[in-house]
Please model this.
Amino acid sequence: MSLFYTIFTTLPGLLAEFLFTEAQTGYLLSFISLVAVFAAMMMPKIVGKFSEAIVLMFAFISYALAHLLFAISTVSEMLILASVFAGIGFGFSIPLLNHATVERSTDKNRGRNLSMFAMAVFMGQFVTSFFEFLPLSPNETLYVCAAIGAICAVVQGLVVKSLVQSNARMTEPGLMPEGYHRAG
Model:
């Protein structure tokens, strides 16, 4: 969440350098939210085609690209492309993680797990405020966030790789858990 909210706290200052009015800045920020809505709408189909882990990795890649494009933007078209990536990052991450929390919870612990998820989301908003204390320009802050997004994508990629390897091992004869029956 810090990656997403840093965009919203950094962009107004950055867009002022592009001579954007307050209204134009608001339109761009709302465009990010509109893209997030459409990305969240498409996310279940994409998860069905790939997997939750891969879609989450793509969300972090999208966040990294958004921050990088915002940092190097020199024209409005780059800002719009960066906004698309920011919306995709949000639309693929938060709804997916919320759904995964519900799916992996039992009736007994669902409320607690959703509360923990909400706390993590709002902690991300809180952590965003610390970027204001760093002695960095808005562009440097965006570069740092791009690096964090890339690191998260790589870590998520390692998780995907380990899941694939684990699943491959589970399908070897003699390694199926007792009581587990393969369909077909």
In short: Residues 179-184 have pLDDT under 50 and may be disordered.
